[in-house]
Amino acid sequence: MPHSHCHGEHDHDHSNPAELGLQYNLYAKIDKDNLQCLNETIDGSGKTVFKPWENRLDRNEFVESDADEELLFNIPFTGNIKLKGIIIASEDTDTHPSKLRLYKNKPNMTFDNVSMEPDQEIELHKDSEGILEYAPKIVTFSSVSHLTMHFPTNFGAETTKIYYIGLKGEWAPGHNHGVTICTYEARPNLDDHKLKHLDSVAKDIQ
Known about the structure:
Blueprint: H1 4-7, E1 10-11, H2 17-23, E2 36-38, E3 63-64, E4 71-89, E5 99-104, E6 120-123, E7 133-134, E8 144-151, E9 161-162, E10 164-173, H3 177-185, H4 192-205
Antiparallel strand pairs: 1-7, 2-4, 3-9, 4-7, 4-8, 4-10, 5-6, 5-8
């Protein structure tokens, strides 16, 4: 397989690590209280891998899979994000995940749901330094309120370890008018004219 295939999925240019660290700040926009990690050995350990980029090499905080090599993260955000980059750091061993499957806006997924087609699948390479970037599909991941990350396999070990997951992108507050529209649509006496008017107001807000 030609090596050039890899270049479309990740970027080796890490000449300015300080700038890179500033860009990977979406960890602060995650609703940590409602973040879920399925098949983690230690309850709550999955949340610890979403941390500042400068702490990515901290080996005291990591998540390890339990029953097998799979890990599944359900990641809610405090608003809408435009996802532009992903970093996955682990050990330079076979416990490093080898594949990442991404699902957009599908909350509360379980391992029973991962048979559905992901919005994107990425082949991972071993990265113990946290400097290898993967590029999500910009159009697909331009309005994300919830991100599911499924790690189905590693490089041959019985369990999978992850020390750092970095997310780069833009954040915006959630659109409150969406809640308003749902509330009004639930009222049976609202006629079509008012609904159309409400839609036009929502479009103006956008």
